[in-house]
Amino acid sequence: MPRLSSCRMPDYSPHYLEGIRLFNAGHYWHAHEQWEDCWLAASGDDAIFYKAIIQAAAALVKWRQGNARGLARNWAKSRARLASLPPHYHGLDLAALQRQLDALCSGTSANPPLLQLTPPPPSC
Questions:
Q1: What is the CATH number of domain 14-106?
Q2: pLDDT surpassing 90 at residue 121
């Protein structure tokens, strides 16, 4: 009997997926609210991950409000948490998120980051 591959797109929480959709649409506060449900149910690295993306969304709320200090403070908290995680986590390229938000905070980019889910690696 052929062996079934265990590599497939993970079954992500609907709250997580909706948070990504809202974040990419620029609805940072609402993304934060979706991810808070995930964070409250998480532990360990998952809790760190959700807290980090919640704080990234909060940073972008401050950015939208023109509050550079709030942007920098929230991003500093988020960045410290993201740095403790692997560069790819729960299907997101966290290193790319860091680069994009660093560029936004430093003024070298005026574009907010976008999150894109990636499938498992081909070696899987």
A1: 1.10.3450.10
A2: no
